Amino acid sequence: MPGATALTLEQLAFDNSFARLDPSFYTRLAPTPLPEPYLVAGSPAAAGLIGLRTEEFRRAEFVETFAGNRALPGFEPLAAVYSGHQFGVWAGQLGDGRALLLGEALGPDGRRWELQLKGSGLTPYSRMGDGRAVLRSSIREFLCSEAMHALGVPTTRALAAIGSDYPVVRETVETAAVVTRMAPSFLRFGNFEHFYYAGRHQELQALADYVIDGFYPGLRDEPQPYAALVREVVERTARLVAHWQALGFCHGVMNTDNMSILGLTIDYGPFGFVDGFAANHVCNHSDSGGRYAYANQPAVGEWNCYCLGQALLPLLGSVEEAESVLSAYRPAFTEEFARHLRAKLGLAEANDADEALFNSLFGILDAGRVDFTRFFRGLSRVRRADASGDAACRDLFIDRAAFDGWVADYRARLRTEALDDASRAARMDRANPKFVLRNHLAETAIQRALARDFSEVERLQAVLSRPYDEQPEMDAYAALPPDWASGLEVSCSS
Ligand code: AMP
Ligand code: MG
After folding, report:
1. What is the pTM of this model?
2. pLDDT tens figures, 154-178
3. Ligand 1, atom 7, residue with closest C-alpha
4. In sequence order, what are the residues at sequence separation of 6 or more whose Cβ sits closer than 8 angstroms to the Cβ of residue 103?
5. What are phi and psi for residue 304, nearest 5 degrees?
6. Residue 103: beta bridge partners?
7. 345: CB partners within 8 A, 6+ apart
8. Ligand 1 pocket mutation pick from 122, 127, 135, 171 by most atoms within 8 angstroms of CB
9. Are 98 and 131 in contact (CB under 8 A)?
């Protein structure tokens, strides 16, 4: 019998609960074959979740399977239908326009993982699209999914990225790739909106029951399971956005079709980690109005939850019930964001004055366009007694006086705490990553990959799998962005 993480592809077991639902939720169809596919990257950590041996990555059958050219026994491929609000506007029917759920693999721990191809060809929901994804965006999604997990953020995962020289037209002619994503479920707020706005309340309820039974079984015992479901999703969403904010992460397209019903980060397109901090930073070049600017993301998360509440209204007792569960967003966000900031600043105890300390910090980071990741990582060097450890942070400011003013308050605050410098620093280094997927790092790996050299993708993947470890030999990956990085633009084109 194979060990817990030693299965071959053929030994994977599937149990496809979503495919057993009524066909009104999806269309069954096979992926479109991708010519001459090759492995770009595989994630050992993701493979481990389903017990797959990493040696499998090297097999031609692995590449063919996750290019969409070959099915495993147990696959029941399908594209799910959903709708959504895009940039604040009802967009009507969308759906898996280039993704296919292959099946639900059973992990060694009994957990179920949907395996989904992204970029696997046309579906009935492709609208004007070509059903494909390009190598550039596939590498970004692959790397960031796994990096976010390593950072501790709830996220969909990525098993592999497969490339092909098959041409795909975007602003220029690029080449195709397919990412195999994994999540307990890829259901979005938009799946519920789809049936609500179609007036199909029976399907709406069936979908809510599926989610409760599969992913929130504890809620069955609540007096109002559907209200409890909305509350849970609202709280998870609030906590997720708080976590993003604490890491300087921006989701580029927070449309309701990109909001996970499990509170996962989903659909990595034009995302970005802010380098020099700006509260109004917009990571998506296509978002000309700045709807999804860093500082707007908490409010947008709440707005999206209202869309979910609206969609589930037929299952809730009343509008008052809906309002009551939706009101959980703000306190959940505020509490979670403060918890993250206390951890980032190394404060063990909560203090009413901390909000002012946090706000003034964001003010000086914004005014000085100070590098977010390097600042917080450097903050553990600050000492409670004197300024001897200030340089790592202070040197990031042109306006040194702004930093000196803030750090005096911070030092005074540290003196109210019991922790000594060394223990506080060790804790802070688990809250403030040294390594995040900055755009220029992804870009370098992409440029090499376009020349068929995937070693930089692999190196980056390895560095980002331990984002809180010092890894001194990898200092270059924690450096300020080079000058050419300011010219990088990430857009909806993917
Ligand atoms: P996104 O903005 O990537 O979340 O996509 C929004 C909608 O457009 C979803 O229904 C996608 O499946 C669909 N879509 C995006 N790109 C493509 C494409 N190249 N081909 C087909 N559908 C696409
Ligand atoms: Mg999407």
Report:
1. 0.98
2. 999 999 999 999 999 999 999 999 9
3. 94
4. 14, 16, 19, 72, 74, 75, 76, 77, 114, 115
5. -65, -40
6. 115
7. 357, 358, 361, 379, 410, 413, 428
8. 127
9. yes
